């Protein structure tokens, strides 16, 4: 007999993007297997524990903390990231304007839970007006919007915008520094960075708040020692940038304190009291640690050797919708489920595959947009409790972070 999931009389209002109360009314008190799939399930207790641990890391490392909210995209998650059993912080990073507006609309800025929002991309020229409007709204609650700059033309465009609008707005700015990942940002030793720094320091519409680095390539770490080396490279990069800024400042003083913002989940995990030795003697600013994946974690983070499985707070529920005996490698079986690239991620991570089925020797081996192919982890034939049947609801640990639309 097939193991059919619990059926629900889901009202039409749950199609599309439902509101929170509609979801609570429909699913509260029902078993997890009764959720419509695919569904992301988060263990709130583990999420909170991971948030508190990161606050501890930042404190031991002698840094303030800025939480990236792109992974979960929920107001509840933002609160847990900022207010933990260990500490409280008020600064976040967003990847999209929608994320920022949802934080505002959820009342987190008005209530004083968030007072510092960084838009986490070098400012697009077609978003300047949008960010200005957001800044005007958050300023009413005493909160600030900060931006990233990594090209002189971005500054020129902001100056022209302010002139056109006859506005005297001042933009709090991080200069984006590259520490070897070759994504956004500039090498502080490059001619381009020196030119950017000169223009930024002299611009009438900017205040250089600090220097920001994200070591995206640190996700290749497989040990605390490797992650620590990436962290050191990040600190060196922003510190070199701050040193140059102090030397170029028209009136440098001991009171000048740039923010040196570094981090990724692997390097933030490596930011401990042990890695803090003598940092204070060498710094040309105040340390800020930032990270985003850490409350949820995934198989990629497990592969770094910096966490264990008990700290992974997320899983994705999927329903088996078809089955293909003998179609896989070495004559193994395959199955089709309703979780694909949209529900999971298009990245496999170093563990191979897009996720692992919890409690079974299956993994999400291939994905299309809306569905995925479950393949055997080994070469043996599935049997007994390890076999999948149409209608089964499986729980998948993602290889990489899942990022639902907000």
TrEMBL record:
This protein's record includes keyword Lyase: yes
Q: What does the UniProt keyword field contain?
A: Lyase
Protein's UniProt keywords contain Lyase: yes
Q: Which Pfam families match?
A: Ala_racemase_N, D-ser_dehydrat
List, as start-end ranges, the regions of compositional bias called Polar residues: 1-12
Q: What is this protein called?
A: D-serine dehydratase-like domain-containing protein
Extract the ranges annotated as region (Disordered): 1-20
Specify the species. Somion occarium
Residue limits of the D-serine dehydratase-like domain?
313-405
Q: Which family does it belong to?
A: Belongs to the DSD1 family.
